[in-house]
UniProtKB/TrEMBL annotation:
PROSITE patterns recorded: WYL (PS52050)
InterPro entries for the chain: WYL_dom, XPB/Ssl2_N
Keyword Cytoplasm carried by entry: no
The species this protein was found in: Streptomyces alfalfae
Protein's name according to its UniProt entry: DNA-binding protein
GO molecular function: DNA binding
Domain WYL span(s) in chain numbering: 790-852
Region annotated Disordered, chain positions: 1-29
Transmembrane parts of this sequence: none
The entry's keywords: DNA-binding
């Protein structure tokens, strides 16, 4: 028995003995002969067929043949499976297994093609794109229309119409002239003449003899048309070499001034092959560099820690309220540049970290009247987690995210700039491409970095239609390849890879997909890519719960590799402090108040300035507090210049007092106030003396503080009670926000429970629609019609005999359906019965039953 013949199952879902071989007359019949497991595989591979669940197998077959569903199914095939479908589109209908194989392998009959062809054919059968046994293979009609040659859309194979199709509108006399010019005997009718010409073109020896007589210029014309497009333009009086081809039917007219190379002639010139280049196996992913796995893991761990520090620095920069939200949503170009400067990163990298924080739910808009971006309450919870768990939260948000940071700065279909955190950044294909790229990395030996070009070639083989789809203005022509390149860079930034190779904790993120990919080396042939039913549909996809568990396992592997936070710095005489590694968060936060970050890297350098020391004093620290803090956290003695700097700033800090008048300056040193009044830089503050120790200003306290500080003084603000105001940064938080939901690419892949329930419902509905009846409806699909008395009598009789009946039923919403039920009780205007269609006991009002009929005896 052929591999494509379905295996019937019994009611429990187990395989039943095969029935006598019958050639199905339609796709519905072919589906009807499949087992439950095969139907579940179809629905898994094409989840769009499940929305809503078909009522029976006829409706399932109809839906599987709709244009939108077929286009989606064809796009999700790998390159060789598409080539098999293209060969079926130009083969006779129905075609035999051998005919299609010959179109793929050519006259030479490459034996390496058949194993891949059998796998590809099985994939097309599974997805209901092909039906019938090996002796009568049929491509679904919609797929044939999409792939078959036509003037308005040339075939992907580059073949033109057959001789019969091209001569359909030709006069019988012209057909006989072609037959005679080709050296064939004349016939009595055009049909036999076309058949005779077709037989000539199909005969390799006779065709070779005919072409041996052709002028060299004619052969050159055929060589230009043979691989497509097969159409050419001719004048009203074609040249001699063109006339030779036209007279013998090697070029047939399709329209005034247009000729086509018929399919049979092209196949002879191609040695029987439908494709110029056949790719039955996927290209291997090459290795660009190899490193020791320990080096890869250490590099990835260091980058993972840098990723955490970058996100923290970003949100700390926006801690008191970040940039404003644009009216159309998103971050302005100017604010993105400011953020990039603050992070000391290029703008594309800054945009990636902003989008990642948003995807992880750490960043959102505050929703206030003056809407701004700020950290969410989830950020505070995230900060309390151990470093490895914080990393796991970031990668768990990155893997399924459909927002694509690489598009930022580009243009959408309406020529609008795509901004960070703005709309129109979702690309549904992004999660699948990310996971597929990582899965392919897992197929390489540990420590091996891939060659990007071979990786992209593999992805294009797995999804060729998506890669070559013409641009529509809103999508790049090869979006998948661009996302794949971005994935390689982003995985390195996140520490999933190190030096281009997948780290050990990166493999753990993929779970079974990594082991499967590594075990089979990336299976070959149609559907060979590890993961989905057709090889690429949902490669290694996992649910949110399972992904969280995998991320936790990866975090456990990463944790020992992360550097331990330090509790000390090294103070130097040039007013700097060197942190030789990552610092404890309390120490880092305190040090960032008293000093400014001068440089980052393996060691962070902080610089103490009068302004930074004054900032610490404004936050409520005293000089003695700062001396004690530095002495406690420095492995080197506190340098004398630093001690002098702290004491000098502290001595002058708060000598001037600023309050609200609009504002005033108070100082016990009258000479200092005289100096301020005499300074020309104070004219903008419009100061005047109220008392020997008090100056009043027509400026608010904040402006007055900044103005005097700009003049070189160190004033302090005071409260209405005369106490020094301690200025601390107040963290601004948004209300609780949920992370953005990924935008799925089509309907979600159903789980096993849903598939089982759907198959049972379709089987039951099919039983109801195909059960033999004693009283057939007046027309196909029409409900049975009986009077109320006949309905009641038949129901009561069925209760007594225990037999099932066929009814028409209209529910409260007015939807009509046919059902097979076994009545168990009739009373009070209701019938209680076991509904075979729904596979449960239900109660139906008799007034909604349109009619009833007994089922035919077996």
């Amino acid at each position: 028995m052929s591999i494509d013949e379905p295996q019937p199952t019994d009611s429990a879902g187990a395989s039943a003995p095969p029935r006598a071989a019958e050639t199905p007359r339609s796709l519905a019949e072919a589906l009807r002969s499949r087992g439950d497991d095969d139907l579940a595989a179809l629905l898994h591979a094409r989840p769009d067929l499940l929305n809503p669940v078909p009522t029976d197998l006829t409706q399932l077959a109809t839906r599987a043949g709709t244009r939108a569903s077929v286009v989606r199914a064809l796009e999700r095939l790998d390159r060789f499976a598409q080539q098999v479908a293209e060969a079926l589109a130009v083969a006779p209908e129905p075609a035999t297994y051998g005919q299609v194989l010959a179109l793929l392998a050519g006259d030479d009959g490459d034996p390496a093609v058949e194993p891949a062809f059998r796998r590809a054919l099985a994939t097309l059968h599974e997805q209901a794109l092909v039906w019938g046994p090996d002796e009568r293979l049929r491509l679904v009609r919609t797929a044939r229309e999409l792939l078959a040659p036509a003037p308005q859309h040339p075939s992907p194979t580059g073949l033109g119409p057959t001789v019969a199709e091209a001569t359909a509108g030709m006069s019988p006399t012209r057909v006989q002239d072609i037959v005679t010019a080709a050296g064939l005997p004349t016939t009595h009718d055009p049909v036999s003449a076309v058949r005779s010409l077709t037989a000539l073109f199909d005969d390799r020896e006779r065709m070779s003899a005919l072409l041996d007589e052709a002028p060299a210029e004619s052969v050159e014309v055929l060589s230009r048309l043979v691989w497509g497009p097969p159409y050419g333009q001719v004048t009203a009086d074609p040249a001699r070499h063109l006339r030779w081809l036209i007279d013998r039917g090697l070029l047939l007219p399709t329209a005034p001034g247009t000729v086509v190379l018929p399919r049979e002639a092209a196949l002879h010139l191609r040695a029987g092959r439908a494709h110029r280049v056949l790719v039955p196996t996927p290209p291997a992913v090459g290795v660009a560099r190899e490193h020791r796995p320990q080096v890869v893991d250490a590099t990835a761990a260091g980058q993972a820690y840098t990723a955490l520090a970058t996100v923290e620095e970003l949100l700390k920069d926006w801690d008191e309220g970040g940039p404003a939200v644009l009216r159309a949503g998103g971050l302005s170009v100017r604010d993105l540049k400011r953020t990039a400067v603050a992070l000391d990163l290029p703008e594309p990298l800054a945009a990636f970290w902003v989008e990642l924080a948003y995807a992880a739910g750490l960043l959102a808009s505050d929703g206030e009247a003056d809407e701004r971006y700020a950290a969410t309450p989830a950020y505070d919870e995230w900060q309390e987690l151990p470093p490895a768990e914080r990393w796991a939260a970031l990668v768990t948000a990155w893997l399924p995210a459909t927002r694509t940071a690489g598009l930022i700065g580009g243009r959408d279909g309406k020529d609008r700039t795509l901004s960070a955190l703005g709309p129109h950044l979702d690309r549904s294909v992004a999660p699948e491409v990310r996971r597929r790229v990582l899965t392919l990395l897992a197929t390489l030996p540990e420590g091996a970095a891939p060659d990007p070009d071979t990786l992209l070639a593999r992805l294009r083989w797995e999804r060729p239609t998506a890669s070559r789809r013409p641009a529509d203005g809103s999508e790049p022509e090869d979006l998948r390849s661009r996302i794949a390149r971005w994935t390689l860079n982003e995985a390195e930034l996140l520490g999933i890879t190190g030096r281009g190779a997948l780290a050990t904790h990166g493999r753990a993120l993929l779970g079974g997909a990594a082991h499967q990919g590594a075990g089979d080396g990336g299976a070959t042939g149609a559907g060979g890519a590890a993961g989905g039913p057709n090889g690429v549909g949902d490669a290694g996809a996992v649910g949110p719960g399972e992904q969280a568990a995998l991320a936790a396992r990866a975090a456990g592997l990463l944790a020992p590799l992360l550097p331990e936070p330090l509790d000390h710095v090294l103070l130097q005489a040039d007013l700097t402090a060197v942190a030789p590694g990552p610092l404890d968060r309390p120490l880092a936060e305190a040090l960032s108040v008293i000093a400014d970050v001068e440089s980052k890297g393996g060691a962070t350098v902080y610089r103490f300035t009068p302004g930074s020391v004054r900032r610490a004093l404004d936050a409520g620290q005293s000089a003695s507090d700062l001396h004690a803090f530095l002495a406690a956290h420095s492995r080197t003695p506190v340098p004398q210049p630093l001690a002098y700097l702290i004491d000098d700033v502290a001595r002058r800090h708060g000598h001037l007092r600023i309050g609200a008048a609009s504002a005033y300056v108070r100082c016990d040193d009258e000479a200092l106030l005289d100096e301020i009044l005499a300074d020309k830089r104070s004219q903008g503050l419009r100061l005047r003396r109220l008392a020997p120790t008090v100056l009043a200003a027509q400026a608010d306290p904040g402006t007055l503080l900044e103005g005097l500080r700009g003049m070189g003084f160190a004033p302090a603000a005071e409260s209405p009670d005369g106490d020094v105001l301690i200025t601390r940064a107040h963290a601004h938080r948004t209300p609780p926000r949920s992370a953005p939901e990924p935008v799925p690419e089509g309907p979600p892949v159903p789980d096993a429970t849903l598939l089982g329930a759907a198959v049972r419902a379709i089987r039951a509905g099919d039983l109801a629609s195909t059960a033999p009846r004693k009283a057939a409806p007046a027309a196909d699909g029409e409900l049975p019609r009986t009077t109320a008395a006949e309905t009641l009598a038949t129901m009561q009789a069925a209760v007594l005999t225990g037999e099932a009946v066929w009814i028409g039923y209209v529910n409260a919403e007015g939807a009509a359906s046919q059902r097979v039920i076994a009545p168990v009780r009739v009373e009070g205007g209701f019938v209680t019965a076991y509904d075979h269609t729904a596979d449960e006991v239900r109660t139906y009002p008799l007034h909604r039953v349109t009619g009833v009929a007994e089922l035919a005896d077996d």
